[in-house]
Amino acid sequence: MSAFASIQAALVAALSAAPALAAGRIYTDRARPLATGFDSAVSVRMESSSAAEVMMGALDWTTAYSVECYARATEGTDRASAVDALLTAAWLRLSAMDAQAIGAMAVTLHPQIDWQYDDADTLMGCAVIR
Known about the structure:
Blueprint: H1 3-16, E1 26-28, E2 40-55, E3 58-73, H2 79-95, E4 113-118, E5 123-129
């Protein structure tokens, strides 16, 4: 398993620790993580990696992952409010990770959350941590 996949697996493990977020519906790189009939899900995606040569051909990699928190809203409920508790729980777990324990030099949460909304069959909010 590559270092990239190992770190992604560690992110999933942190979100899956008891009690698992989104009732354990935590996926990797899934295009449609919120199946019909479920109220919440999380998707951990590898976004990009870039390398910088450190010394004598050795590379230091910086890899960006996104953690997408999905939640359905009921009619009359704000979609951002629907996903808020899941977002907060995911942020707390990710910010508590020990980089050395997962073989990384650092785990940095960028102070940015992207909000996305869907008005398909049911109202849905998504908050993306990068």
